[in-house]
Amino acid sequence: MIAMHHINEHIVPITRFNKGEANKIFDEVSRDGFRYVVKNNQVKCILISPEAYDKLIDEIEDYYDSKWAEERLSHSDEQLLSMDEMAGKYNISEKDLENIPDAEIE
Q: Which tens digit of pLDDT belongs to each residue from 16-47?
C-alpha cells in the first residue's frame, strides 16, 4: 500500500500519452509496478506491470483455494481420505502417478 503523500508520484495524466510519452510511462510502470491514469481529475484506469498482475492473480487464487479448503474441512459429515486410501479406492498405483506428465500433488 502506498502512503497518501506519495500518491501523486503514481498519477499519470492522460495528456502524457497524447504527448507521446507512452514508452516513458511504461518504463515507470515496470519500475514501480503501477500507475493511475487520470482524465478530468478522475482515475480512468490503472496500469499494472505483468509481474504485479501475476502476483495479484496468485494471491486471489490462494485466497479462494484457502476459502475452499476451509469450507471443505468444516463439513463434519465428510470423511477425509489419506493419499493411500484414495489410491486404493480408485485403484491408482504409484506407477500410474509417475506416468502423468507435470503432475503436481499438494
A: 988 999 999 999 999 988 999 999 999 999 99
Residue with cell 493411500: 84
Q: Which residues contact 81 (CB under 8 A, 6 or more apart)?
A: 89
pTM: 0.55
Domain ranges of the chain: 4-48, 52-98
**How many Cα atoms sit within 13 Å of 2 on the Cβ side?**
13
Are the beta carbons of 20 and 32 closer than 8 angstroms? Answer: no
Residues ≥6 apart with Cβ < 8 Å to 17:
25, 37
* Most trustworthy range by pLDDT among 23-27, 73-77, 95-99: 23-27
